[in-house]
Amino acid sequence: MTHQEFDFTDHSHRRYNPLTDSWILVSPHRAKRPWLGQKETVAKSTVPEYDEKCFLCPGNARVTGGSNPDYKSTYIFQNDFAAVKTDQPTLPAHMDFKDPLKNKLFKVESVRGNCFVICFSPKHNVTIPQMKHDELVNVVGAWQQLYNNLSKEAREDGKPFKYVQIFENKGTAMGCSNLHPHGQAWCLESIPSEVSQELKSFKKYETENHCDLLGDYVKLELQEKTRIVVENDSFLCVVPYWAVWPFETMIVSKKKIASVAQFNEKEKDDLASIMKTLTVKYDNLFECSFPYSMGLHQAPLNAVGEELENSWFHMHFYPPLLRSATVRKFLVGFELLGEPQRDLTAEQAADRLRALDGEVHYTEKL
């Protein structure tokens, strides 16, 4: 075998994700293989501004009765099909199955909470990259208000609220059942596993290094610049070094901010701005309405002590498209049974996103 210099753009390697204490296999040479698998259907832009059959449009009846107000901006309401509920029986803290094996292996706990729908806009036919800047500032403000309201309800009214996971599934490829621009917020009396693991990793890193994991990561990305997609005064958007999804990105605050509750007006404005620029780039990448799942990771509600000290606001964007508007990345086979794997490096993905127009939406070019 002849000696070759290792090439990160062509040779397989693994990358460590310090947020989740896990590894990902990177196989950049696989991107050269021909694709004969499933292709998605590109949705046509024929969605009306108002849809009388939509359960989220202003003034329309909801499926469980009642109707939406004639809202003009971001509108939040309780999910009619909530995944968790406040009013339900609780299980004993240590449930006894009367069987030693079951007690060891079949652990269970009740979970209460509430779920909300967040309509970004009264217009049925827009998405985040198509919304105006001040409209997106309203969305960020609504996230902040919801976080503060839920914190108050937990603190003053005894509601079983510990963490609120705010997220958006955009596009049918990500399982979105209603195309009206909206996100969700699931509020639980426990911290979800993914967030809990991040908080543990942040604590471990701080204990070992006496500094913040994401603080160091921001410093390193600003130093290297190879994975930066876009930045502004308050936030940095990068393709993480350990990204799993082909064009996965992370928006992270440049300074330590625990949650949206701590945002000032400048930071709300900057988050709206960087979200719009990123999602416009996404749409321009394959000239389609780019699907993704997006979520905010931040401090638990009413966090104090280590929970508050270890929290650092950031957002994850997980888009599934790999080669074009019709070719999707599936996590199957080795990814499910071994560990996550990707076919292009984070640096290659960042190069492509960084080079894209961040100002003009693709529909304006047709």
UniProtKB/TrEMBL annotation:
<dbReference type="InterPro" id="IPR036265">
    <property type="entry name" value="HIT-like_sf"/>
</dbReference>
<keyword id="KW-0862">Zinc</keyword>
<feature type="binding site">
    <location>
        <position position="57"/>
    </location>
    <ligand>
        <name>Zn(2+)</name>
    </ligand>
</feature>
<comment type="pathway">
    <text>Carbohydrate metabolism; galactose metabolism.</text>
</comment>
<dbReference type="GO" id="GO:0033499">
    <property type="term" value="P:galactose catabolic process via UDP-galactose, Leloir pathway"/>
</dbReference>
<dbReference type="Pfam" id="PF02744">
    <property type="entry name" value="GalP_UDP_tr_C"/>
</dbReference>
<feature type="binding site">
    <location>
        <begin position="30"/>
        <end position="33"/>
    </location>
    <ligand>
        <name>UDP-alpha-D-glucose</name>
    </ligand>
</feature>
<keyword id="KW-0548">Nucleotidyltransferase</keyword>
<keyword id="KW-0119">Carbohydrate metabolism</keyword>
<feature type="active site" description="Tele-UMP-histidine intermediate">
    <location>
        <position position="182"/>
    </location>
</feature>
<protein>
    <recommendedName>
        <fullName>Galactose-1-phosphate uridylyltransferase</fullName>
        <ecNumber>2.7.7.12</ecNumber>
    </recommendedName>
</protein>
<feature type="domain" description="Galactose-1-phosphate uridyl transferase C-terminal">
    <location>
        <begin position="198"/>
        <end position="365"/>
    </location>
</feature>
<feature type="binding site">
    <location>
        <position position="124"/>
    </location>
    <ligand>
        <name>Zn(2+)</name>
    </ligand>
</feature>
<feature type="binding site" description="in other chain">
    <location>
        <begin position="175"/>
        <end position="177"/>
    </location>
    <ligand>
        <name>UDP-alpha-D-glucose</name>
    </ligand>
</feature>
<keyword id="KW-0808">Transferase</keyword>
<feature type="binding site">
    <location>
        <position position="198"/>
    </location>
    <ligand>
        <name>Fe cation</name>
    </ligand>
</feature>
<feature type="binding site">
    <location>
        <position position="54"/>
    </location>
    <ligand>
        <name>Zn(2+)</name>
    </ligand>
</feature>
<feature type="binding site" description="in other chain">
    <location>
        <position position="341"/>
    </location>
    <ligand>
        <name>UDP-alpha-D-glucose</name>
    </ligand>
</feature>
<feature type="binding site" description="in other chain">
    <location>
        <position position="169"/>
    </location>
    <ligand>
        <name>UDP-alpha-D-glucose</name>
    </ligand>
</feature>
<feature type="binding site">
    <location>
        <begin position="334"/>
        <end position="335"/>
    </location>
    <ligand>
        <name>UDP-alpha-D-glucose</name>
    </ligand>
</feature>
<dbReference type="GO" id="GO:0005737">
    <property type="term" value="C:cytoplasm"/>
</dbReference>
<dbReference type="InterPro" id="IPR005850">
    <property type="entry name" value="GalP_Utransf_C"/>
</dbReference>
<feature type="binding site" description="in other chain">
    <location>
        <position position="63"/>
    </location>
    <ligand>
        <name>UDP-alpha-D-glucose</name>
    </ligand>
</feature>
<feature type="binding site">
    <location>
        <position position="316"/>
    </location>
    <ligand>
        <name>Fe cation</name>
    </ligand>
</feature>
<dbReference type="InterPro" id="IPR005849">
    <property type="entry name" value="GalP_Utransf_N"/>
</dbReference>
<dbReference type="GO" id="GO:0008108">
    <property type="term" value="F:UDP-glucose:hexose-1-phosphate uridylyltransferase activity"/>
</dbReference>
<feature type="domain" description="Galactose-1-phosphate uridyl transferase N-terminal">
    <location>
        <begin position="5"/>
        <end position="192"/>
    </location>
</feature>
<comment type="similarity">
    <text>Belongs to the galactose-1-phosphate uridylyltransferase type 1 family.</text>
</comment>
<dbReference type="GO" id="GO:0008270">
    <property type="term" value="F:zinc ion binding"/>
</dbReference>
<dbReference type="InterPro" id="IPR001937">
    <property type="entry name" value="GalP_UDPtransf1"/>
</dbReference>
<feature type="binding site" description="in other chain">
    <location>
        <position position="184"/>
    </location>
    <ligand>
        <name>UDP-alpha-D-glucose</name>
    </ligand>
</feature>
<dbReference type="Pfam" id="PF01087">
    <property type="entry name" value="GalP_UDP_transf"/>
</dbReference>
<feature type="binding site">
    <location>
        <begin position="329"/>
        <end position="330"/>
    </location>
    <ligand>
        <name>UDP-alpha-D-glucose</name>
    </ligand>
</feature>
<feature type="binding site">
    <location>
        <position position="180"/>
    </location>
    <ligand>
        <name>Zn(2+)</name>
    </ligand>
</feature>
<dbReference type="InterPro" id="IPR019779">
    <property type="entry name" value="GalP_UDPtransf1_His-AS"/>
</dbReference>
<keyword id="KW-0299">Galactose metabolism</keyword>
<feature type="binding site" description="in other chain">
    <location>
        <begin position="79"/>
        <end position="80"/>
    </location>
    <ligand>
        <name>UDP-alpha-D-glucose</name>
    </ligand>
</feature>
<feature type="binding site">
    <location>
        <position position="314"/>
    </location>
    <ligand>
        <name>Fe cation</name>
    </ligand>
</feature>
<feature type="binding site">
    <location>
        <position position="297"/>
    </location>
    <ligand>
        <name>Fe cation</name>
    </ligand>
</feature>
<keyword id="KW-0408">Iron</keyword>
<keyword id="KW-0479">Metal-binding</keyword>
